[in-house]
User: What shape does this take?
Amino acid sequence: MTERITVTGSGAVYPASALCAGVALWWALTALGDIPPFLLPAPDAVVARLAGNPELYLVNALFTLEKVVYGGAIGIGAGIALAAFVAYVPWFRRAVYPYLVTVRVLPKLAIAPLLLIYLGTGMTTAIVFVALITFFPLVLNTAAGLDRTPTAHHDLLRSVDAGPIERILYVDVPYAIPDIFAGLKQSVTLAVVGAVVAEWVVADNGLGFLILMGSENVRPDVMLAALVVLLLVGLALYGIVVLVQRRVHERLGLETLD
Assistant: This one.
């Protein structure tokens, strides 16, 4: 246990060091370089912008988080459900799986104009867009994970007359846990990106909309402040998924599969 804590703690040092180095380089460029503030404001200017009007960024962060939570929940739920069909219904897998792979490589931004036509502007369109963004990584990863169980394990279950429910709950799902969480990590990060893109196109609130307004008014300090908050939101959501994954692995004794 002590060794594991030490490794985890040391692993956090490198990202923190990289962040400090990046901020230091940013500060050096603004302090020593001939870069005007309207192109690249100094870190202290961005901090001052955040400290000067924290309510603006907090309220818009909550709007963005609302889209991420609702859209992500729909996309994740639909992804897991469809993955089960893909994994356990052979004819459905042969009919649908190639299209899932093909659609995944298409740029999702191309779907936004169609959503505008069918759903108009507003919260519903943003949620649907986020759901589509989060859906594909999860369905493909989960389907692959459910298909990962060694054949010998299934043979052993059949030898003791275990039914399909026991097979899924006690063998397939534990083996699929790493893939499911890998898909969740992708989906969570993509949900934040999808919410920002949706706010550029269909919303009048949120951090994405704030970034868009800062761009139109040539206010890089506003844009960078919103990006900092957006980064914190994304890191928090990703960290929650990692913590849940560790708890699940510890509960099921799956540390060796992580």
Observations:
- Residues 1-8 have pLDDT under 50 and may be disordered.
- Residues 5 and 128 are 40 Å apart (CA to CA).
- The radius of gyration is 22 Å.
